[in-house]
Design a protein that fits this description.
Layout (H helix, E strand, L loop, with lengths): L3 H5 L8 H8 L1 H39 L2 H4 L1 E6 L7 H7 L2 H13 L13 E6 L3 E2 L14 E7 L2 H4 E6 L14 E7 H7 L6 E5 L5 E12 L5 H4 L8 E4 L13 E9 L14 E7 L11 H13 L1 H10 L4 E3 L2 H44 L1 H9 L4 H27 L13 H19 L21 H24 L7 H4 L1 H16 L1 H12 L5 H10 L6 H36 L3 E4 L9 H9 L3 E14 L11 E7 L1 H11 L23 E5 L1 H7 L4 E5 L2 E10 L11 E5 L10 E6 L3 H11 L4 E4 H6 L5 H31 L1 H13 L4 H34 L6 H5 L17 H28 L13
Helix pairs in contact: 2-14, 3-12, 3-14, 3-15, 3-27, 10-11, 12-15, 12-21, 12-27, 14-15, 16-18, 18-21, 18-29, 19-20, 20-29, 21-27, 21-29, 21-31, 22-25, 27-31, 28-31, 29-31
């Protein structure tokens, strides 16, 4: 019978190659698709997470900042005195100010343009005026100084507590003699103001404007910009009198200052006051739509508003003398500083995890090519070209990898919705391209030349080619350049990708070196074991030596994962150490108990109770005398002040040594000192370097409230526990004529509640500061928290890929190991010996990887430590000003050892599991005659 093809004239249809291969090995295709999907998802998710935490950090920095700093404020002096009185009065009334407010708001940057809810405008006195009423409190005899302000929408932002709202009774002009006003609850409580009280405001004409207090109000949102942009609107303050020239030896007196709030249309009455009144418009920035990419443009716009074309536009609306003020640009500068400190550290983790993922993809490609070596060799023998084989493998891989990469990208887009979508595309594209290139190239290149059956590429006998030597030297040069650049330039400038890849390059060099050095100990160990009884040790080392010479990829994956984990753990440990140090510098000891302003004496009963409290190891009594004038300079122009600290030399020296805050020998400070030619006693003092330079080498006279001293510098300290942020002189208390204790520095672990109860019973003006509580105030901002989460996720992802690398390396040789165990069991090998054989075979690779990872992690941190300063990352959100000079990166022992031990445990566990599984299976397949394994 004639075949149908002959009758129809058509050739039989060939089965599609790609479809046939996918049907033949669906498990491999699904596994590859899953790996590409997960890797693409992580690669797309990383830039989105970084951008999201940057955006959240920016918005948090603006909303959490003090409204007095973030507010956008426009000020203009009172209308010109040359204008008619009616025009001056109309210009400061609510309608005119609202018109300017609306026009000025339209001129602000669109990205932070505020709504009307938190904005305020009005007319106020810019300089407080004294209130002479005798019923007002005067803590130290100084008259209170009050401001007066008419502010918009007061009733919408406050609640009336007592009395009535202030109102305008008829037309108010510059000559009006009486207006009504209100004060907040805090102001009324501090200044003892009640409804019905009157306050006289001096005017330029020598008369007085009477302000009658009609009510007490409470802010509805005390922390809003409306009330907190100028805190005196809400809360009075006790402030010192300004310094006089020449400086007075007496301590400054403190007086109350506050603000009285007037109705909006009562503003013309302030035109005649002596408080230099001015118009103001305040805007609370809205950061809800602000992103990290908007920061450069916003900073430029703010600079223009402060002194540029933007200010010209505002002056066209508010007057020729209007001025724009904000500290929002400083908030943005602080944000850029923190982001610059965070980005290099996060990039190190990303590069490390990404490199490990790339190594795993390459290992997967190698595993696929190794499993199909016989098939490709047969096709090559039957005339298949390298290009044809590579094209078919590329088609097979692309059909699986490209859809998986697209799905990974689509799966990442719903996360972190504030981030832009297009930066997430690069990662999945790189993953798809890498796997699509690696599979055909890695599978085809070994078939360029025919290979004899049974040829092995043993680690023990392989000799590196010249091409490999050149490649390794190239990588070495790159690694040395990256490390040298990072040590010289540091990360403060936001290092480039090469600097962030320095740990990866160091790990790569270590992997290549270990691969080259590994045959030597294997040879020595094989010779030693060959002379011993038993075949397990000899077989395990022989098997380890016969592994492929291209085994650098698993080792590289492990080293990079260990290095990244060690670097990240050391960064986190360094941040914790820097914050601990900053807390110690701020408090000076484990606890600090001080009188009012560090000047009021502490009761003797309190000293005895603190010494007897549980958990207290040591108490150092300090007499703090502030504002002591130093002798004038030679030309008489320099008049500096310092803090004199009266201490017990032995106790204070021991506490300083314990806290590591300016240690010194106690004997150097002990009084009495030597006598000069006139017979006066010269007291030795230890000072800060600046004070030592002013005092010089000879005896100098000091006049202090604690007595006159003749002192000579006996030593210098950069800082001391009692006053870490001031210029100081430490003197033996015995040398002071008048002695009292103002501060206690406590070492130990006392109970905070008990300590505060003792202080509360001793007096109301005594403060307690604890080092532990100061440490707890270092709270991560969203950017710091996000960076820590990203780094932890990168380390976990790197560890997961390292685990996958170990499993792939075992999977590559799994058939050979299974066949070996099956054959050895026919010769009497027990299950226990089989487990020992596989475990010992894996140790020659696992132990060098663990030890090498530990050493490489340590070396990487030591090499890069001088270029990485964690101060910006650790202390950016700190509460105080006392911070360490630097926060260097140091190796963390736990971060080095635990991951290395984990590698050994993981490898041994995987080998034991494989031996157990092989023992449960039948050995018929492995014992087939003619099996090449």
């Amino acid at each position: 019978m004639t075949p149908p093809s002959v009758r129809t004239g058509h050739h039989p249809a060939d089965a599609p190659w790609v479809r046939t291969r996918l049907r033949t090995a669906p498990g491999t295709a699904w596994a590859l698709a899953l790996l590409v999907l997960v890797t693409s998802f992580l690669a797309a998710l990383f830039p989105r997470a970084v951008e999201h935490q940057a955006i959240e950090g920016l918005r948090h920095d603006i909303t959490a900042a003090d409204p007095a700093r973030s507010v956008l404020e426009l000020n203009s002096p009172q209308p010109s005195l040359q204008l008619p009185p009616a025009e001056r009065e109309a210009a400061v009334r609510g309608a005119a100010l609202k018109t300017v407010h609306d026009k000025a708001r339209a001129a602000l940057p669109a990205k932070v343009r505020p709504g009307a809810t938190d904005s305020a405008y009005g007319f106020r006195t810019s300089r407080p005026t004294p209130a002479l009423e005798r019923w007002l409190p005067r803590p130290e005899g100084a008259d209170p100084q009050l401001n007066y302000a008419s502010v918009s929408d007061l009733r919408g932002h406050a609640t009336l507590r007592s009395g009535s709202w202030a109102a305008v009774r008829g037309p108010v002009t510059e000559d009006t003699g009486e207006v009504e006003g209100v004060v907040t609850e805090e102001t009324a409580k501090a200044l003892k103001i009640v409804p019905g009280a009157t306050i006289a405001v001096p005017t330029r004409a020598g008369e007085h404007l009477t302000v009658r207090i009609t009510g007490i109000v409470a802010p509805r949102a005390p922390r809003s910009t409306y009330w907190s942009a100028e805190p005196l609107f809400r809360t009075p303050a006790l402030v010192p009198e300004p310094e006089t020239t020449p400086p007075s030896l007496d301590p400054p007196r403190y007086y109350w200052t506050a603000t009285v709030l007037l109705p909006q249309d009562a503003a013309p009455a302030l035109l005649g006051s002596t408080g230099e009144p001015e118009m103001f418009w305040r805007f609370a920035p809205d950061s809800s739509a602000l992103t990290a990419t908007d920061v450069p443009g916003l900073r430029s716009a703010l600079a223009s508003l402060e002194n540029g074309p933007g200010l010209v536009r505002l002056r066209a609306v508010a007057g020729d003398d209007a001025a724009f003020r904000t500290d929002l640009d400083q908030i943005l500068a602080g944000y850029d500083t923190l982001r610059t400190a965070i980005e290099p550290v996060v990039t190190v983790a990303a590069v490390g995890a990404g490199t490990v993922a790339a190594v795993v993809l390459l290992m997967t490609a190698g595993l696929i090519g190794g499993r199909r070596r016989e098939e490709l060799a047969l096709l090559r023998a039957r005339g298949g070209s390298l290009a044809g084989l590579g094209g078919r493998l590329l088609a097979e891989t692309a059909v699986v990898a490209v859809p998986a990469a697209v799905l990974g990208l689509l799966a990442a887009l719903p996360f972190f919705g504030s981030a832009r979508p297009w930066p997430s595309v690069a990662g999945p594209v790189a993953v798809a391209v890498l796997i699509c290139v690696a599979v055909p190239v890695g599978a085809v290149l070994p078939h360029r030349r025919p290979r004899l059956p049974g040829t092995r590429d043993d680690l023990m006998h392989a000799r590196p080619s010249r091409l490999r030597t050149v490649a390794e030297l190239t990588v070495l040069v790159l690694a040395v350049g990256a490390v040298a650049g990072l040590r010289r330039r540091g990360t403060t400038g936001g290092g480039d990708l090469l600097l962030s890849a320095a740990p990866v390059l160091v790990g790569l060099i270590a992997a290549l070196v270990l691969v080259r050095l590994l045959p030597w100990p294997l040879r020595l160990a094989s010779r030693a074991v060959a002379r011993r009884r038993g075949a397990v040790g000899f077989l395990s080392l022989t098997r380890a030596g016969r592994s492929s010479a291209g085994g650098a990829l698993p080792l590289l994956a492990l080293l990079l994962a260990l290095t990244t984990a060690a670097f990240g753990g050391s960064v986190l440990a360094g941040i914790a150490d820097a914050r601990d140090r900053a807390a110690v510098l701020t408090v000076g000891a484990d606890a600090r108990i001080s009188g009012l302003l560090d000047a009021a004496p502490l009761p003797a009963r309190l000293l005895r109770e603190i010494r007897a409290a549980d958990g207290v190891r040591q108490v150092a009594e300090v007499q703090v005398v502030s504002g002591v004038p130093l002798p004038p300079s030679a030309d008489g122009t320099s008049m500096k002040k310092a803090v004199v600290l009266g201490v017990d030399p032995d106790t204070y020296a021991e506490l300083a040594r314990t806290a590591d805050l300016g240690t010194f020998p106690a004997g150097r400070l002990r009084a009495p000192g030597s006598k000069d030619k006139a017979g006066s006693t010269v007291v030795p003092v230890i000072t800060s370097p600046s004070v030592a330079a002013d005092l010089g080498d000879g005896p100098r006279d000091l006049t202090t409230p604690a007595g006159d001293l003749r002192v000579r510098v006996a030593g210098t300290l950069p800082r001391t526990a009692a006053v870490p942020d001031h210029e100081f002189l430490i003197v033996d208390t015995a040398a002071l004529t008048r002695q009292w204790t103002t501060t206690l520095l406590v070492a130990g672990d006392p109970d905070p509640k008990t300590l505060r109860a003792m202080v509360r019973h001793a007096g109301k003006d005594i403060s307690v500061r604890l080092r532990a509580e100061e440490r707890a105030t270092f709270v991560d901002t969203p950017m710091q928290r996000g960076a820590g989460g990203i780094y932890a996720a990168a380390v976990v992802a790197g560890a997961g890929y390292a685990l996958l690398a170990v499993l792939l390396s075992l999977l590559r040789t799994a058939p050979e190991r299974t066949a070996l165990l099956a054959r050895l069991r026919t010769m009497g090998l027990t299950s226990r010996q089989g487990r020992r054989l596989l475990v010992l075979e894996s140790l020659p690779h696992a132990l060098p990887a663990a030890l090498g990872g530990l050493l490489v992690g340590w070396a990487t941190i030591v090499l890069l430590a001088s270029g990485v300063d964690l101060a910006g990352l650790a202390l950016f959100n700190g509460p105080g000003t006392t911070v360490p000079d630097a926060a260097p990166l140091r190796p963390d022992p736990w971060s080095l050892t635990l991951p290395a031990l984990g590698v050994v445990v993981l490898t041994v566990g995987a080998a034991s599991a494989q031996a157990w599984w092989a023992g449960r299976r039948g050995s018929i397949t492995e014992l087939r005659s003619g099996d090449p394994r």
